[in-house]
Amino acid sequence: MDISDAVTTEYVDVNPGTRLGKLRGLFDEDRGLDAIIVRGEGKFDGLVTRKELVSSHRNPDSKAQSVVRQPPKIERTEDVRETARLMVENGVKLLPVFEDGVFQGVVTATGLLEMVHDNLAALDVSDVYTSELLTVDPDDNLGEVINLIRTHRFTRVPVVDDGEAVGMISLFDLVDFTTRKNKQEQGGNSDATDSFGGGVSKSQGRTHGGWGERSGFEARLLDLPARDVMNSPVATITPDAGLDEALDAMLEKNYSSLVVVPEEFSEPAGIVTETDLLRALTWTEDETYDVQVFGVDLMDDLSREDVADRIEEIDGKYQKMDVLEANVVFHRHKEKLRGTPLLQATIRLFTDEGLFSGTGEGYGARASFDEAADILEENTLSDKERKSPRSQMKNEHERTAELLQWWSVGEAAEE
């Protein structure tokens, strides 16, 4: 099945010279907007994703062309499975569609899933959801929430009170909350600078009136409880519901995730996301487990076959364990060595024995992946790296405060 029926010309676009503050405003106006197309002189220049914009520290006066990224380009005749794979592996929910080299429109994750809606009934939520649920308590402070999201590179975390899901906190909620508090701290100064799009003073984008002591402001934010930030109520679904029902629930609520709660219990059993539904489209009948690579564009010296072979090797050394799914995530740092960027690789194995992971760093994809694989193998064989919300939350207050400052102060030196 090709994607032709899912191609649309309905998208949000800007020119390369548009301020990032304006882009942030567009994302704020539409919480369902995942990416904005950048077009100059009638041609496709790339896109800017919500996640990249709100999770990075950028001057609101910088231009769209400074953060634009090049996603994979597809044609109308592209297969649904391949399109879903490209979205999952590249961490995007929108891909540009071309015909004879000319930009024709886009296909979105939601549009793709709606097109195959009836086929989704073949699988249940229990087939795809993440059961190793990381949660926070309503009274956990903001610092703990930020640590959890940053450490595990998640975009959202459920809030659970006495075994019941009472809310959800996303990365975007944290950024919005921080910028609102920052405006209040400034006392309504019209020259204030929020994270994106607020007024900017002439003194290098900074304002001084009403700020008070920055360190005290950050400390107060870090101590605020999760209940002050969370969205409530939370949308839930049962494990035995079909994926078509899950999609219907997401569309009805305009949510990209649902908390999975068995009918006989009130305690959450996991979470299912729109990305999980996309990933299900990539499965084939002969696959025993799925290896998904995020940041595949960073794999200059490493192939997908190398990744799969190494994970299969680790799986074979733990005879009691069955790997259900494997995720590999590459993250680029700013540092370089002779032109090769420093990368962080994280490998996660979802198994019938629990969730195992390993993280490594190195210059280039192969070096970082090899180190992560060695650590994963050691953790798997020693059976010491089972994930749990509390055991994995480390005390990284200084780094958390720094991240919070990035969100609350809307100025950064552009390199």
UniProtKB/TrEMBL annotation:
Composition skew (Basic and acidic residues), residue ranges: 381-399
Electron transport keyword on record:
no
Please give the InterPro entries that the UniProt record associates with this protein. CBS_dom, CBS_dom_sf, Diverse_CBS-Domain
What range does the record give for the signal peptide?
none
Q: Which SUPFAM superfamilies does the record match to this protein?
A: CBS-domain pair
Q: Which residues form the CBS domain?
A: 67-123, 129-185, 230-288
Keyword annotations: CBS domain
The ranges of region (Disordered) come to 183-213, 378-399
Q: What superkingdom does the record give?
A: Archaea
Note whether S-adenosyl-L-methionine occurs among the keywords: no
Can you name this protein?
CBS domain-containing protein
